[in-house]
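[INFO] parsing input record for Beta-galactosidase
[DEBUG] input buffer:
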Amino acid sequence: MKTKMVFLCSFMVLLSLINSEDVTYDGRSLIIHGQRKILFSGSIHYPRSPPEMWSSLISKAKEGGLDVIQTYAFWNLHEPQPGQYDFSGRYDIVRFIKEIQAHGLYACLRIGPFIESEWSYGGLPFWLHDVPGIVFRSDNEPFKFYMQNFTTHIVNLIKSEKLYASQGGPIILSQIENEYQNVEGAFHENGPPYVRWAAAMAVGQQTGVPWVMCKQDDAPDPVINSCNGLRCGETFAGPNSPNKPAIWTENWTSQYQVYGEVQQLRSAEDIAFHVALFIAKNGSYVNYYMYHGGTNFGRTASSFVLTAYYDQAPLDEYGIIRQPKWGHLKDLHAAVKLCSEPLLSGKPQSISLGQLQQAYVFKEDLGKCTAFLVNNDSRNDVQVVFQNSSYLLPRKSISILPDCKNVVFNTAKVIPKLHYYPLKVSTQSRSAHGSHQNTSFSLRAAVSLNEGVNDIALLSVMVGLPDSGAYLERKVAGLQRVMIQDDTAADDLTKDQWGYQVGMLGEKLEIYTEEGTNKVYWGRLSTTNKPITWYKTQFDSPAGSDPVAVNLGSMGKGEAWVNGQSIGRYWTSYLTPDGSPSQIWYNIPRAFLKPTGNLLVLLEEEARSPLHISIDTITVSRVCGHVSDSHPLQVYSWVVDNQSNEYQNHHGQRPELQLKCPQSKIISRIRFASYGTPSGDCEKYAVGSCHSVNSRSIVEKACLGKRFCSIAQSRQYFGGDPCPGLHKSLLVDAQCS
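[DEBUG] output buffer:
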């Protein structure tokens, strides 16, 4: 018995040592517990979602094939006043990282502490602005003093909770500064010394994990320079040392949206192409920015940025899986992981397959081989020959061959699609304002003056502080110049004749809270709406578990609170060029709600009536899939034959269409089904010249009443070939309820 106990203790000590090993790297990848790793990561920011959502978000990220969750540390939230720290509620960074650990994932902590992130003042606390002699992000002693204080405070907090991988925790990577090279030149001789100081200060924290500097080609050893952007496989010059791995810290899954501009979307196919290209060119770490954007609660968004942040990410603002991005990237991750051994230990080789076609091949000494076949032609599908076999490469695509023979994934072949629809409504604009591209503007208005002395009061309402640029401490906002003029003279009122007050009385009294509402008199709703008006009402929580949003499409501009918590700024009167508001639905996390009697308070800056506001739920009501006989088989059905080292499919030899409704919903109706040559896609479709008459009945039999169903794309499944000799596909649109 005594001998067994000694053995057990020895084993536990050994296990502890293995799990507490420092993270290192070489020219191929990060090395964790002695093993090279290809890692897929996703940005999820803890302040942009309530803690009650964190577990679900991380779980969905893991299901989507991620290994790492990446987040910034938000200085202005954590240190609202010098030396006063706040890590409560949504600011609980330790709880968030422990949640990541509980799901068995790694974490990347980007301390910054300047983060940009479309976050007000780039994450810098505004009190820094008043420090005498300060110059932000420069070789400036006051700034370096406060920056080092905060960085050290965060590192010590993380160390105290044993959250670095060197302590057995999940954090494998940290970042200091953020995209500094964009502004370094503006600081002249004070730029490069600051870079060297920041790197040395970070490394001196002794975390046991590597540090990165993104967009910083001159990052000094041992700090790793990394890439941010849309196409790092094409644009990244590579690590500045052969001993550093190629890391992509921000792969933008869409473009953050600002008020007044049309949303810029990015397709799942384009994201997958550039990820596969980066991996093919020796990349080993890819982070999606954002994987879940969440909500810019309160006034945390930077100038003109929407309250909804990166809603087109794989997990949207409400945490709902957004297809096809989520599913297509999940398949990509699985395909790349099939190639891990040759990618990490094989010898790379590049082979020309044509003018715009290339093969990236990785071969191990023991014979294992992986290939990425790239077609850079954005207009034409191309047939290529690789190792005596012919492959059809769709335009602008990459085929992944984990055994250099079988195609298990192609970046252009997207199978699942999923849609939910709240429709937008149009409103009319009556405000005077700048824009994201040109923030300054002039307002001319007629005023009536009395004889003698007149008192003038102007309200200037900002839409977020700037988040980037050199000499951020010098940037000014608000009122710049006021002139009153008639036909004969002009009085310039820009000098010392003004007093000012920051904020409003209603905010200081917190009349958006249950207690604060009793501090003021609330009158009955008038038929004559006036600007700068507070409104309040109560509502009950919608039944069920679907996400909740308030429709403010009938309002103008202002801020909204629910049960005392700001759900963000709204600006529905500022229309995009196509005549629609940038955002009308504003997220109300269910964690903010009570079953009944929820308090909704609005500060409406324009003269809009609240009578048409509604409380809605966001639900996935449609699932749609489109698969053709040219699609690769399901990635998860491929297994390697240990003798031949080739991949074989043991779960069916035809592509499958899969439909899946969200939790608590089933497929209740088949809206459209066609096996043959349907035209269009999930957005707009029709029966083509070839169509199996059995399509709807067979799909209904397979799917109705189920949450999930899988349908083989084969003529046997549909009772025969409706048009021999033609390539066929299957398109199904179903309703979930």
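[INFO] The CA atoms of residues 293 and 310 lie 5 Å apart.
[INFO] shutting down worker
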